Amino acid sequence: MTAPVAPGPAARGTPRPKKTAELLAQRIVADINRRGNTVGDRLPPEREMLEHYSVGRGTLRESLRFLELQGVIALKPGPGGGPVVQRPDAGTLATTLTLLLQFGNAPFRTVAEARGGLEPMMARLAAERMSAGHLADLRSSVEVMGDHLHDQAVFLEQNKRFHDVIAHGSGNELFGLVVDALLGILDGSAIGIDYPEVRRRAVHRAHLRIYEAIAARDPAASAEAMTRHIDEYIRYAERKFPEVLAAPIVWSDGP
Description:
Strand content: under 5%
Radius of gyration: 23 Å
Keywords: DNA-binding, Transcription, Transcription regulation
Organism: Actinomadura miaoliensis
Strand order of the largest sheet: 1-2
InterPro entries: GntR_C, TF_FadR/GntR_C, Tscrpt_reg_HTH_GntR, WH-like_DNA-bd_sf, WH_DNA-bd_sf
Pfam families: FCD (PF07729), GntR (PF00392)
Distance between the termini: 49 Å
Oligomer: single chain
Order of helices and strands: HHHEEHHHHHHHHH
Shape: elongated
CATH class of the largest domain: Mainly Alpha
CATH topology of the largest domain: Four Helix Bundle (Hemerythrin (Met), subunit A)
CATH superfamily of the largest domain: GntR ligand-binding domain-like
Protein name: FCD domain-containing protein
């Protein structure tokens, strides 16, 4: 009989040691912050970075590829090219969350439920903190949606915009990133949820209620209106598209 193999450090939950390339990536980011680099700034050429960090070419290039995947830099080819500073966005977070959820066999219902817990809190904070600029943007999204209820593409665009503005207007940067990522995963049109015009009108009325509560600077009413809105969405999906909510999350660009 073969003896069972003892679990390795990863199986026991011990954090894996960081690779040299990952540690170097952290140093590069720290230097970007120290120098005050902004989007579009070029990093030093490869020969200077090799000398400065005292690493091999393979390690440096692996670090730069890692940072490119994280959206921190873009690698421009050709003469005068090289690493250029970028601003990471929620797309990378959405991909990471999608993969984690996929390997955890989580259904799309997981994301819907998470939104039900998070977005009322964001609406409450938005009522307290939202700037005049964000409030005007929120009103615009409601108006544009109302003017184009016959067009599902515009409806979906404004639906995402509305929730994005509330998340970023909450004054909590993490909420903005998380909602961007969750909306990217739970794109109803991509996963098979349809919105007939009667449903679009219901969503528009819900958005108007939420906007009015936030504009009135009423945190409790804003949270209540958002809770009602998300609950209505989940009930609609459960009634019309239960198989979609039950389907496992997969990393995909959609149909």
